[in-house]
Design brief:
Radius of gyration: 49 Å
Distance between the termini: 134 Å
Structural class: alpha+beta
Oligomer: single chain
Shape: globular
Length: about 210
Amino acid sequence: MTRLMISLKPRVTACTNFALAAGILMGNMLGLPLVAQSTAPAPATAAGTAAPLPPAQAVAPALAGATPAPAQAAKPAAAMKPYRNQPDRIAKREAAYYEAVWGIADPNIKAVESGVILRFSYRVLDPQKAKPLDDKKLNPVLESPEKGVRLVIPSMEKVGQLRQAPYEIDAGKSYWMAFSNSGRLVKPGDRVDIVIGSFHARGLLVE
């Protein structure tokens, strides 16, 4: 009996050692990924110390390949600045008067040809009402009450007066007449009047 127990002891020991080795091997196989993930060395800095890992909030955008841009509040559109800082040509009330009584719109005066000519132009809305402005029997005058100046339309040889003189005027079209300002007494920025018979346009801005 004693011999039988002595003979079986090596076998039991061998089996126990095999089971222990198998258990360790299986444990290593199952534990390798976890150990590899949990024991990955942190990147070293220039000083040789491990740099702290970035937070998850910072890693996620980098992995996605996009960097989140900071939100910016929408800026209101800047108001458009006028080309020139000048007052309006005429007031709204005067514009309504010219349209209702004389059938014209946008009466304006511009200095042309280096200021030696002042061109008065307007757009016809109602040809019947605007007909007096095209009367060839009337002599238009440009007046500057402030400077005491009166300018007239010059007449050119073979051309006649420097003004549009159609037989009939049409709605929607613009017409003009030119006043001589050879001495450049009237300058851009001045306020002047236009007189054509009973038609009076007062305080027009010279542009």
